[in-house]
Amino acid sequence: MAELMERHHLVSKTKTLLIAPVVFLSVFFVVPVANTFLRYFQFSEFIDVLGNQSLRSVAWFSLWQAIISTLLTLVIALPATWALSRYTFLGTRIARGILTAPFVLPAVVVAAGVLAITDSRGVATIIWAHVVFNVSVVLRIVGPRWSMVNHRLENGAATLGARPSHTFALVVWPHISAAVTNAATLVFIYCFTSFGVITILGGVSRRTLESEIFTQAVRLGNTSTATALAVLQAVIIGAVFFITRRSSRPNSTSLHVSSPQPLHTKPRHRITPLLITATAVLIVASPLLATIYRSVVVNGQVSLSAWRSFFSGALPALSVSTQSVIFTSLIFATAAACICVPLALLVTSSSAPRALFSLPLVISAATLGIGLIITFTTSPYEWRSERWLIPVIHAVIALPLVVRALEPATQAIPRSLRNASATLGASPFITWVRVDMPILKPAILRATGLSMAVSLGEFGATSFLSRSGSTTLPIAIAQLLGRPGVATQQAGFVLAALMVLVTVGVMSRA
Amino acid sequence: MKFLRTLLATSFVVAITACTSPSSNSPIDATPNEVTLLAYDAFTPQEGIFDAFTAATGAKVKVVTGGDSGVLISKAILTAGTPEGDVLWGLDNTLLSRAQKVELLTSYEPVDTGDICVNYDKQWFASRNIAPPTSFEDLTLPAYKNLLVVQDPVASSPGLGFLLGTIAHFGVDKWQNYWKSLKENGARVSPDWTTAYTIDFSGSSGKGKYPLVVSYGSSPPAEVLYAEKPIDTPPTAVIESTCFRQTEYVGALRGTRNPNLAGRLISYLLDVPFQESMPLSLFVFPVNKKAALPDLFTKFAVAPKNSLILDPVEIEKNRDAWLNSWRDIIL
Amino acid sequence: MLNVSNLSVAFGNNVIVDNVSLVVPTGETLAITGPSGIGKTTLLHAICGIVHTTHGTVHIDDSDITTLPTHKRGIGLVSQTGDLFPNMTVSQNIEFGLRITRMPKADRITRVNELLEMVNLVHLAHRNVPELSGGEARRIALARALAPHPRVLLLDEPLSGLDQTTHDELMTDLSRVLKQTATTALLVTHDHSEADFLADTTFVFPHK
Question: Burial of C40 by CB count in 10 Å (0-12 exposed, 13-18 middle, 19+ buried)?
Answer without folding.
Answer: buried
